[in-house]
Amino acid sequence: MSETGRGAGAAWRGQGPARVLVRPQMGENIGAAARAMLNFGLDRMRLVDPRDGWPNPSAVAMASGAGRVLDHAQVFEGTDAAIAELNYVFATTARPRDLTKTVMTPERAMSLARAMMAEGQQVGILFGPERAGLENDDIVRANAIISVPVNPEFPSLNLAQCVLLTGYEWGRQGSDVAGEVDVIARGERATMEDVGRFVAHLQEKLAAKGFFWPEHKAASMRANLENLFRRAPLTETDVRTLHGVLRALAEWRQDRDGPGPKV
Length: 263
Known about the structure:
The chain is α/β, with parallel strands linked by helices and 263 residues long. The chain folds into two domains: 18-172, Alpha/beta knot (3-Layer(aba) Sandwich), CATH 3.40.1280; 192-260, no CATH class. It is built from ten helices and nine strands. The strands form two sheets. Strands 3-2-1-6-4-7-5 form a seven-stranded parallel beta sheet. The two termini are 40 Å apart.
């Protein structure tokens, strides 16, 4: 991973969820997204593998006064690294998917984000590349989907428009926190990195037992399995418990005293 500005572990500089632009293609669109963010006091931009490299002069020119957002933008080689320490991630997409996830309007999503951040959680929003949007491999890593209620005959939004809409909803709601929110207490929600590590552990054990069969369905089986745990509101304790379950099952044995885990 490489990054500009401050490190991934630095304290958040501004208000609102991190905007994570996944494989953006044009510098102009990154600059326009930076302008949209700063319109609503947002300055936490993360870039995943920008096509034309970084820094990008076209982005700076298009930012037109929002250069400070670009100055602190962090650049990552992959989506996992960009969301590793976040507790909750939204994915923006207008297309129907095979994955089972909660779908929210920008209004509801930003209401939830405000409540979670008030509890000390770290939240991010994924935005896909301009040509085709987020791929399933990225969406499966999110907890929920943001879908804008647009004309179904022309649902396409450009990158900056999508960033602007979520920024508007964040700003419009001010400091109010929704009264009905299912939020895990501060400091308890597992990070995306923790969940990813458990999913990899689980898939490794299942693969060793031939679970992902037939082969032509293996990829979708893996995606659905990961999606199940990504959308669940897991705590750090939950993840440690699940790792312990896998270890216990791996060590299970039958002996004269009956079934039970080795100690």
